[in-house]
Amino acid sequence: MSVVKVSEAATALPRAWSSTVLGRVGTAAVKVLRMDELPVEEERHAEPEALLVLDGRLELDVDGEVVTMGPGEMYVVAAGTAHAVRPGSSGTLVIVEAEAEAEAEAEAEDRPTGRPSPGMLAR
C-alpha cells in the first residue's frame, strides 16, 4: 500500500458526513470524513469504534455526557454505547471500526433516508 494523504482524501469527499475507506487493518476499516458543524443523530454499534480528530473539533454526547475532542485526540466508543454528534463539530475525523459493521452501514447509506448518522457515513 502507498502513503495516504488523509487531509486530501477528506477534502475530495462529495459532502460532509460522507466518508471513504482509507485502508483495512485485520477486520477493521480505517475511514476519513469531514464534519460540518451540524448535529448527527444518536446511534449505537455492536462493536467499539475509535474516533480520532485530525483537525477541528468533535463534540459528542456519549450516554448523556458531553465529550469534546480537538486535534490529535482520540475517543473509543464502547460497543453498544449511545452516542451522537453535537452541533459545532467541524474538521477532519478518522474512524476505525469493525469491517462487518462498516459493510452493513455502507449498504444502508445506499438507500435514500436523508442525513446519515455518523455510523452510516459511507462506511
Plain-language structure description:
By secondary structure, the protein is mostly beta strands. Helices cover 14% and strands 45% of the residues. It contains two helices and eight strands; from the N terminus they run αββββββββα. The chain has helices at residues 6-11, 99-109; strands at 19-25, 28-36, 40-43, 49-62, 65-69, 74-77, 83-85, 90-98. Strands 1, 2, 3, 4, 5, 6, 7 and 8 form an eight-stranded antiparallel sheet that branches.
Task: Write a brief structural summary.
14% of the residues lie in helices and 45% in strands. The protein is mainly β and 123 residues long.
Descriptive tags:
single chain, about 120 residues, mainly beta, 8-stranded antiparallel β-sheet
List the helices and strands and how they pair.
Elements: H1 6-11, E1 19-25, E2 28-36, E3 40-43, E4 49-62, E5 65-69, E6 74-77, E7 83-85, E8 90-98, H2 99-109
Antiparallel strand pairs: 1-2, 2-8, 3-7, 4-5, 4-6, 4-7, 4-8
What are the low-pLDDT stretches, counting only 5+ consecutive residues below 50?
Answer: 111-118
Mean pLDDT value: 86
Q: Which H/E pattern describes the elements? A: HEEEEEEEEH
Radius of gyration: 13 Å
Broad shape: globular
Helix content: 10-25%
Class per helix and strand makeup: mainly beta
- Helices, by number, come to 2
- What's the assembly state of these chains? single chain
What does the largest sheet look like?
8 strands, antiparallel
* Distance N to C terminus: 20 Å
- Hey, roughly how much beta strand do the residues contain? 35-45%
Tally of DSSP β-strands: 8
